[in-house]
Amino acid sequence: MPTQVQWSKVNEFLAQVGALDDPMSLAVNTLLQLRKLVLFDQGRIYFMDADGKVFDEYLIGVSKKTTKAYHGYYHEVDGDRYSVTKRAKEKERGMRERAVDETLPKGREVLFQRIYVVDWSKEPHSTRFYREYIAPQGLKHSTGFALHDTEGRTRALFCLDRTHDIAYTRDDTVMLGLIATHVDNMFRKLYVQVPAVRGDQIAMLTGTSGLTERERQVCTLLVRGMSPKAIAEMFGLSVRTVYKHVQNVHAKLGVSSQLELVAKLSEQ
Fold first, then answer.
1. Domain coordinates of the chain in residue numbers?
2. Edge-to-edge strand list for the sheet holding 54-60
3. Averaged pLDDT for residues 121-134
4. Alpha-carbon distance 40 to 17, whole Å?
5. How many helices (H) and strands (E) does the chain have?
6. What is the pLDDT of residues 65-88, one digit of tens each?
7. pLDDT at 140
8. Using CA atoms, how far apart are residues 62 and 233, in angstroms rounded to an integer?
9. Cα separation of 217 and 79, whole Å?
10. Residue 104 pLDDT > 70, yes or no?
11. 3-state DSSP call for residue 9?
12. What is the pLDDT of residues 28-43, one digit of tens each?
């Protein structure tokens, strides 16, 4: 059973990630905030379409070159044993146990996620996947979880890897299970009621303003209440660069603060 301290940490975590109102932003912020609770050296999110195909990714501590090699070749070796899409299907089948959590509104059901850990020292070292992909990265332990849409299809697959010999503990997996369960519930709700009105308002406000694509993204996140520092973490930019984008957004839209930006949006 989770301890009171763990519940407290989970509630604080959910308050930090719950302000975002689109699936990809929620997933990225979840990974960033997880670093404060569970130690990992490499973090990956694979975003998947309704057909189970990876169309985008977000990486921490791992290069695009490495994941490109995985998607291009290594996910298919050794009988698809280490395929992302296969793992996603297994995650979907594993989400059978239902639980009602007392911290949620009465009667709301959530799908409880079990967290599994891979100890690479116990995996076959003779496989091509281990020799050519895992060993060169120095991976020792891996775990993760998935987020789903309302049809139960995996839309975001999280991989958390350690390159040191400290194994994931029971406390780690309990914490990840609680977080994955509740974030998945939040994630699925975004597929039920997408905030189209707010999205349309942002499009109207920025459509003829000459904003670049990055400035448009920064504008959207500012309106959703994210700080420049959080935006910098999300996009892997320096805070100084984000502030430059913020200055450009303010100048092009004729506002001088985040509050004025939200106020102007409300006028549309």
1. 4-192, 196-267
2. 54-60, 42-48, 154-162, 141-148, 117-119
3. 95
4. 19
5. 13, 7
6. 999 999 989 988 888 888 887 777
7. 97
8. 15
9. 40
10. no
11. helix
12. 889 988 988 999 999 9
**Which class for 87: exposed (0-12), middle (13-18), buried (19 or more C-beta within 10 A)?**
buried
> What is the distance between the alpha carbons of residues 13 and 33, in angstroms, rounded to a whole number?
7
Structure tokens at 177: 């299970």
- Could you confirm whether domain 196-267 is CATH 1.10.10.10? yes
Give the C-alpha separation, 100 to 54, whole Å.
Answer: 31
Tokens of 256: 């001088």
As a whole number, the mean pLDDT across the chain is 80
The token duo for 261 is: 């930006």
CATH number of the 4-192 domain: 3.30.450.40
89 CB-near residues (< 8 Å, 6+ apart)? 52, 154
Name the amino acid, one letter, at 132: E
Nearest-Å Rg of the Cα atoms of the chain is: 20
Tokens 């504008």, located at residue: 219
Q: Tell me which amino acid residue 74 is.
A: Y
Report the percentage of the chain scoring pLDDT > 90: 32
Cα(268)–Cα(264) distance, integer angstroms: 7
Q: What is the mean pLDDT of residues 134-148?
A: 95
Closest CA to 13 of 176, 159, 224, 193: 176
Q: Given CA atoms 204, 207, 209, 213 in this order, what sign does their dihedral have? A: positive
Which band of pLDDT confidence, cut at 50, 70 and 90, is reported for residue 97?
Answer: very low
The pTM of the full predicted model, rounded to 2 decimals, is: 0.69
